[in-house]
Each structure stands twice: as structure tokens, then as C-alpha cells.
Amino acid sequence: MSPNPEIDQALCLTEEQKARHRYTLVERFLRLEFRRFDLRQREQSVADTILDMSFGLGLRSVRIPKYETLSDITGIAIPNVYNAVKALVEMNILSIEDVDGAHIYTLIANPDEWRCRARISRARVNDAVNVLKHYNGLGEKLAPGVLDAITSGPHSEEKGTPENFNNHQSTRALQVDFMDLINFSPVKSSFVPAL
Question: 5-182 — its CATH code?
């Protein structure tokens, strides 16, 4: 037995298990991104539901036969589900393909391609997550000066306009890592099924 059982376990994973693990990481990442961007409550609910039904179940895309299905899951009226889906497609967060009469919903896993405003920078969110990890005894211990810098005052990356939040250098580095992780070509479609 090797000194690192986690590596031994990772090497024994099947391709399906590795893919499911990647999808879990992407799901966590997108859930944080949905909170970070300026989405209306209904758009957020529909996006979260599609996330749960795709990446949450280990799938890249999900087939949804009709808006009534999304309405039943979210509790949002069908016309409002339609409007939320249409808005998500317009913001390039969601892509829908019509394949043999089935509607295939795919989330665009690259937030740099989304056409909506970020409310807060990814660096600020990461700082807040690190503070929570620190206060809950998870992860590495932060040096006192680092913790003070994170928890006080304005953050240097926020001196620009909210539209510039996606252009932060650490955002680009993190995005490349996640795009490598999921290894997908984003699907582009402006198709929205009729009511």
C-alpha cells in the first residue's frame, strides 16, 4: 500500500466515475457563478434546476420534454418559465437544441461567455469562501495579516465597474482550469422552444 491512499483510490476510478467527479466540480463552480451574476429569481431557479438535472445527475445535458416539467419542479408558472429560459438563452448561459423533437438543455460552463453583469468579482467570492473555511477549521490556516486583508476594506480588484469583474486576471486563470477540467466545446444556440 502506498503512503497516499487518496492517489491509490483516484487511480482505481473508472472513466464514468472520473467524469461524474468532474461534473460535481463543475456543478459547484456553476452554482457559485449563478450567485455571483445578476440573475432574477426565476432565472436563478430555472438555471439551478437545469444544473441539478444535468451536472447534478452526472450528465452534460438534459432532455426536458416541455415547459410544464420545469414548472412542476420549480413551482413557477409555465409562461414565467418560458420567459426565464428565453432570458437565459439570450444571456448565453443556456443553450437549447432540438434533436428529433426532443429539447436538449445545455448550460454554458464558461461564465466569461455569459452576457450578463457580475454583481461581485470571483476573487472577492473566493476570499469570502476562504474566510468561512478559516473560521470553520477547514483548509489551510490563514496568516493573521492575510485574514485581516481579506475581511477589511475595499478590495483592489473592485475599483473598476462591475462589467470589468469578469476580466480579473485570477478569473481568467480559474476559467482556463475549469475549461480544461470539463473539456467541452461550449454549444451555442439561440433556439427557444415555443410555448
Answer: 1.10.10.10
DSSP 8-class letter at 54: T
pLDDT in tens, 105-163: 999 999 999 999 999 998 888 888 888 887 888 866 655 555 555 555 554 444 333 44
Cα angle value 22/25/26 (rounded, 5°): 85
Number of helices (H) and strands (E), helices first, in the chain?
Answer: 8, 3
Enter the pTM of the model: 0.69
Query: Cell 461564465 appears where?
Result: 111
What is the residue extent of each domain of the chain? 5-182
> What distance, in Å, lies between the first and last C-alpha atoms of the chain?
59
Give the up-direction half-sphere exposure of residue 52: CA atoms within 13 A in the CB hemisphere. Answer: 9
